[in-house]
Amino acid sequence: MDKRVELLAPAGSLESLKWAILYGADAVYVGGPGFGLRANATNFTIDELKEAVEFTHQHQKKLYVTVNIVMHNQEVEKLDDYLKKLEEIQVDALIISDPAIIQYAKEHTSLELHVSTQQSTLNYLGVKYLKKLGASRVVLAREATKEDIEDIKKHVDIEIETFIHGAMCASFSGRCVLSNYFTARDSNRGGCSQICRWDFDLLEDDKPQQGEKPFTFCTKDLSMITKIPEMIELGIDSFKIEGRMRSIYYIATVVSTYRNVIDAYYENKLTSDMIENAKKILDAVANRESTVQFFDGYYGKDCQYYNGRLEFSNQDFLGIVLDYDEKNHLAKIEQRNYFKVGDVVEVFGPNHFVNILKLSHIYDEEHHPIEIVNHPRQIVWIETYQPLHVNDLMRMKKRD
């Protein structure tokens, strides 16, 4: 295969964008100062977009900007100036949901145009129509099955992008109206309040019903790590990770895990053990259960919670490597969570696979021996004879 699948990562800030690129993303998608569907994220200013373009292009990567809200007339009046600014700073593509913007952007800019999953495209006639309007890529609805993707690839010569990891929506491809109804925050204009994750009372004939757990219709997350070989062989052009509001640890972990599996596939080195280990890593960094959702053509009770759920804050992320002293075999760490002498940890980064270390000696910033590290962003040194690198991340090793 000459062309490899693109690994596309989210970024809610310049910091997370840089981590996504360093940890293996081929492209990053972000929200600008307007027209995007993450109003509560830390979106990019025009100046930050310029810096993001420079950074991604320096690393031979790409930057896509979302322009995918459901637009009202007041946005239409600002559209021309905004698109021209994005063209001027040389972003690589726009992600658009409104067909009128596709046509307008095609006529007034030279920007590459990708159609958002918000368009809910699941059939080849819809893809043909979007291509005719000027789209070069379609991000399929999250509800696409393997058969849907096969039919589209067979009938239309266009790039296809699919989600492989992240949160799902209980409404069709994110077209939710409940958020607006309950909280006056419009999910189709960037204000989703995640109503599907609320707990609800159950009523029957207007009488409260007591269940074993609070009722919810929250979906489990999406994780396609076990399906990567199958998806590559379908001819999908881009694998998309969801999560513009996620931490740098989450982004680095998810991106690097998929990067390693994708690369191993192309190098004919991918094994079932590697996939299983990758799944364990992704399960550990998530705070909700995950499944393959619609891909296999089945969507049943195992894809949602219904009767309550547990969401865990992630305590596995221990710290960031700031430096390595080769002479004294010491790594400088900026703490993120509690750890102590005797802990077994994993260190991973863009330059190597996972290193497993037992913390035998820890020193404070002035090199005095200490037993525990429990102050926010505390700077410490750990002894390790395995060379570590700047921007490596340290996490707690899960027990087998």
Structural write-up:
With 400 residues, the chain is α/β, with parallel strands linked by helices. The protein has ten helices and 22 strands. The chain has helices spanning 14-22, 46-58, 73-88, 99-108, 124-133, 146-155, 178-183, 228-233, 248-266, 272-285, and strands at 6-10, 27-31, 62-67, 93-96, 112-115, 137-139, 159-166, 202-204, 207-209, 221-223, 238-241, 290-291, 317-325, 330-335, 339-340, 344-349, 352-358, 362-364, 369-370, 372-373, 379-383, 393-396. The strands form four sheets. The chain has an eight-stranded parallel barrel with strand order 1-2-3-4-5-6-7-11, surrounded by five helices. An eight-stranded antiparallel sheet has the order 17-16-22-13-14-21-18-19, with helices on one face. Helix 5 crosses helix 6 (146-155) and helix 9 (248-266) packs antiparallel against helix 10 (272-285). The longest helix is centred in the middle third of the chain and has 19 residues, at 248-266. The radius of gyration is 23 Å and the shape is globular. The model has no long low-confidence stretch (mean pLDDT 89).
In short:
With 400 residues, the chain is of the alpha/beta class.
- Cα-based radius of gyration, to the nearest Å: 23 Å
Unreliable runs: none
Q: Based on helices, strands and strand pairing, what is the structural class?
A: alpha/beta
What's the helical proportion of residues?
25-40%
Query: What kind of sheet is the major sheet?
Result: 8 strands, parallel, barrel
- Spatial order of the strands in the main sheet? 1-2-3-4-5-6-7-11
- Overall pLDDT confidence: 89
> Care to count the β-strands?
22
Count helical runs.
10
Q: Based on CA inertia axes, which overall geometry fits?
A: globular
CA-to-CA gap between the ends? 36 Å
Which strand-content bin applies to the residues? 15-25%
